[in-house]
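Q: Give me the 3D complex with cytidine-5'-triphosphate.
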Amino acid sequence: MSNLSGKHILLIVSGGIAAYKTLDLIRRLRERNVIVTAVLTKAAKQFVTPLSVASLSGRQVYDDLFSLTDETEMGHIQLSRASDLVLAAPATADLMAKAANGLADDLASTLLLATDKAPIFVPAMNVRMWLHAATQRNVAALKSAGCSVFGPAEGEMACGEFGPGRMLEPLEIVAALEKLIAVRSTGSPKAPASRPLAGRRAIVTAGPTREPIDPVRYISNKSSGKQGYAIAAALATAGAETILVSGPVDLATPAGVRVNSVESAVEMLDAVKAALPADIFVSAAAVADWRVKNAGTQKTKKGSDGPPMLELVENPDILATVAQMTTGRPNLVVGFAAETENLVPNAQAKLARKKCDLIVANDVGAEQEIFGGDRNRVVIVDAAGAEPWPQASKAEIATRLAALLAKQLDDRT
Ligand code: CTP
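A: Here is the predicted complex, encoded as structure tokens.
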């Protein structure tokens, strides 16, 4: 369970294009049982509406310093004191400048001045604004006043420039908050209870593979990679040094995870072998079962011969290869089974055939929305039997799986 569970976060949203990511951040926090009270600056309302923020947070959204009703129901001092954490995301250069200099001309800046918590800023701005001496001075002043600053990340900006200034992705912010809470509550990020996998090494595969037909065409599948990425994030949060061998997906790198991006199944197997040894191997990737035998080196042209005949050959089975290593086999090898019928018997057969230690079995039948969705329903199948887990978010399943693997690893070693 996340150490954020039950916490109350006062979320200050200032006006930047990254504010759209804050909507997802609210969802991620609520999945972890966090109470989110949001405050929008005037500029933030140009990017997200109070209605969308209120719908996602399930609570009233505040934006006006001089609203009498709010002052009667909850004064701004109380608003800033009632929370466990004060988080500004996105934090614009303007918001941080105000906070660093004690300005208080709207509700957001007043709350930052009135709070007795050390606020956390998640900056988002153009690279030149971030690198400007004034912003850097303000950031240094905030840090020396005990505030935390998460990010920014480096990358392509909405404005087309490249460099530091991008707001961290929602799951990266969640991971950074969890780490901060662990440090604040224990004085050390390595509290044994919250980091049961400290000192362990884990490799996770995730996403689809792409099997080339020619330089511009490929065979692939609908895997989003979300469950595998969530598992890598959970293993890293639990303290494991985590390497994620990922097929092509559109997901942010989870905090504390090293990503090795690959395309084909053969590349994925090579990357897994290169990342070994490990204590845990989780094979969450939807590896294509076949590849084209003689993929073209030039783009295949339409011709008079009709459509090309593709000869397929079987791909290496990465899970079975790792599970059946005679030397250096990871202590725990975990596979996935996507089934549309006979879930448990099929998963048990797969467990025996591939010789892995545990299978996370998914029902991907017609009425399920597993592929690409944020929720999942799984049955854990191992030598001890089959345990159905209740439907939950992919993040919650990942956290529970990381705890189970930590326990099984402790029992074995
Ligand atoms: N897997 C793998 N390498 C492959 C194929 C699958 O590592 N070439 C792994 C997947 O990552 C997953 C498990 O094996 O952990 C799934 O096994 P698979 O036999 O592919 O199961 P299904 O996709 O359910 O296929 P089938 O219905 O053919 O059994």
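A quick observation: The radius of gyration is 24 Å.
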